[in-house]
Each structure stands twice: as C-alpha cells, then as structure tokens.
Amino acid sequence: MERVLAMYSLLQYLMATLFFVALVFFIWHCAKIIERAFKK
C-alpha cells in the first residue's frame, strides 16, 4: 500500500511539473504573438 501511495505522489509530481512547463510554454508563445502584433 505504501508503494502505491509513493507511486501516486510521484505521478502527481510529474503531472504538476508537466502542467507547469506547458503553462510557461503557453505564456511564452502568447508573449511572442503579442510582441509580433505590436511590432506591425
């Protein structure tokens, strides 16, 4: 049972990390688009 909990917490950590990376990438992408829009 403890092993299952450890696996679950590890999975949660990985999911949170992936979500954070995706969020940062999305914000960076939006910033690029906004920058391009303002330059025109």
TrEMBL record:
The keyword Transmembrane helix applies. It comes from the Bacteria. The chain crosses the membrane at residues 12-31. Keywords: Membrane, Transmembrane, Transmembrane helix. This is Uncharacterized protein. It comes from Mucilaginibacter xinganensis.
